[in-house]
Design brief:
The complex is a heterodimer of chains A (about 400) and B (about 450). Chain A has helices at about 5-10, 15-45, 70-85, 130-135, 170-175, 245-255, 270-275, 280-310, 315-320, 325-365, 370-395, 400-405, and strands at about 55-65, 85-95, 105-110, 120-125, 140, 150-155, 165, 185-190, 190-200, 220-225, 225-230, 230-240, 260-270. With about 400 residues, chain A is an alpha+beta fold. Chain A is elongated, with a radius of gyration of 32 Å. Chain B has a 6-stranded mixed β-barrel. Classes of the chains: A alpha+beta (about 400), B alpha+beta (about 450).
Chain lengths: ~400, ~450
Amino acid sequence: MELRPILSGMRRNKVGAVMIALEIAVALAIFCNAIFVIQQRLALMSRPTGVDEADIFAVINQWVGTPEDESARIRADVAALRAMPGVKDAYESNTQPLTERFWGSLLITLHPDDVGSLIGAADYFGDQRTLDTLGVKLAAGRNFTATEISDFRGTVDHPRTGGILVTRALAEQLAPGGQVLGQIATIIPLAVSAPIIGIMDRLQAPFVDADGMSRVVDNSVLLPYRFLFSRIFYIVRVRHGDLDAAMREAPEALAAVSRDRVILRLQALTAARGAVYRGSRTVALMLSWVCILLVAVTAFGITGLTSYWVAQRRLQIGIRRALGATRPAITRYFQTENVLITGSGVVVGAALATVGNLWMVKNLSMARLPIEYLVIGVIAMLALGQLAVLWPALRAASVPPAKAMRTS
Amino acid sequence: MFGYYLNLALRSLRRNLALTILMVGTIGAGIGASMTTLTIFRSMSADPIPQKSSWLFTPQIDNEGPAEAQSVRNISTSDLLPVKLTYTDAVALMRARAAPRQAAMYLTAVAVSPPDSQLLPFQVAARATYRDFFPMFDVPFEYGAPWSAADDGTHAAVVVLSRKLNDRLFGGANSVGRSLRLDKRVYRVVGVADDWNPTPHFYDLTGTYLGGTEQIYLPFTRAIDQQLSTEAGIGCLQRAPGNGWQAILHSECIWIELWTELPNPIAESAYRTFLHNYADEQRASGRFSWPARVALRNVQQWLASNHVVSSNIRMLVLIAAAFLLACVLNAVALMLAKFMSNRSAVSIRRAMGANRGAIFKQCLVEAGIIGVAGGALGLGLTLLGLLIAKGLFSGADVGLTRLDGSGVAMAELLSVGATLLAGLYPGWRTARVQPAWHLKVQ
């Protein structure tokens, strides 16, 4: 392909070429940063909880006044929930997976004398049925027994406990490569010291969408406590397909035990997932729209400008055709020209994208843009340019030489 | 003359309809995207209490030592000071009366038993605070008035209801003097606050959960007596509290907000000194083993240090602004194509006596029309975008992101401004067309 005539043609239309190159540069900078952010959000949203979300719902219960016999009431409630038709299992807890609430966290260590060894984690209270209810697999060690479960009053009481369960991810951080089963863990601020008796395969912490929490999101501790507090969670596992019916009947089953309560929330875990990731989903959605519009706007811009250019050069095209250039040669001319312009555009664009990303890394705590995204963006922009120039190039090739030279 | 330009511009735009639609669409998309994010940004970074935001201050005291605060960033501002106070500090600051107006507060919840005993009790968010809360934050009253300072002192069982709750419980009637059962105890209604929802919810940025915003206000002293626990969570950085309510009150756990009104710089600087001295006394008495570290922030400083405008929003604003730039670039390209295809007509006008300035002006009028139309389209897209963006907001913020009059004006201004800017170069180029050359080859 002869580049000389293309280059000299471009020199006569500097402005048009520069405009297209600039458009491509800006589009590339936005495009690869936007798809990177979208991908990050999608990755965040797709992290597993380790729980059978489809068949679980959570009830937040608030007592009216302060009941005297809280422990017995909770046991009665759990028994009533477990006796419901369609319900496989249930337990009472201080929290649930996939909840938007996050305030404080617990810190756990095997070396209580070394402040630097404290690791952030989430505390779940539960009993011997918790693992089965959630569908969390025990990777090593043993589960609680019914006799190990004790009452925990609010945040201010810390009964002794025979043992706790931790997730595999937390075990790895507590003793990298080492054995944690049987080791004594100290938990702050609950002031609990207890041996680790079991390791859970995976149980995600409740606070999944909090900034800066991704490092500890799989760090969970399961404590053998019945949570005696004004606000408690009942987690209920149903047989597959019975979720809606069980959720409808649960308030009545609880009301039959006692009416001195307020059901603050009754929510399927699938709905909880939607709620906690709402912000991330919206960002991904909005950026997707920006990307679509960006591609459309840039493509139309290139088509428009090239069309005008073709129209301007009808005479030149006619002469070339008359001198023996074939139609494919004319099409190829415009396509090659576009590759050259887009090519210089993506070079500038890659630099712009990197600068933009670095600024966001510094000011908005974003991650660094991996090189793959630049490559994808560059390929997308080159393809976009070719696609956008196709129609004007074909139009140019269809110029009949005789007519072009007569009317121009 | 302007009318003539307008006429010419409309004719010219109609002649090249596809290109015109493309330009309007491009500008519209850019305006839509940037106005959507800007509207969100503006509502999130708005001043919640503009009439006195620079005179309302919240104190912060380092009660755990800088090293401990680092482990749990969520409950400290960027300078690693805790975002709330301990009960000990809150009460000490209230007792010192170092500010003309001051109110400690925390979010709690109560079960309300409706006067109609047929109805089931329900849970509402409540704020335990002091009398000064109401005049300090200019809370409007529909009926009655705040409780008295004496009520704070006697731990009186009095409440101020929100208008919403008053509507629900008493059908919107004047309920001052009526009694109400909260958590099975009787309270007397002293006032009904009119609709009031400062956004962002500056005086308590952590406290909206399930119950939404608070619907009942009651004396702080009473709430402590009744052992009403905080709804916004309790932050214990290091040491665990002991057993029972008294242990929480005496712990180093933070859970109370405190706001003061310091009406002039002298009061502010005096309070700063007082606060520093207080923390230093605590050090001297052996409670803190580190040099006193305190901060006193007004509303705007407080919002900034808590990153109220999330990085999500900042990033969206940035990307949308870049997108608008791409759209403007595109408009420049299209206008260049459009104006230049019109060279022969321009040449005739030039030959008949129009000077370059006139041609330039006419090009800008054409650009301006595209700007107005693009702005209108952009407004439509903004409304659509705001619907999508609802998901960015949780609880209390929903419904705030409306496009107001200034937003509409801003969209149009931005649109016309951007297109005029985009039209400058193409217009200049067109005005420099050599009429003779184009007329010759015709």
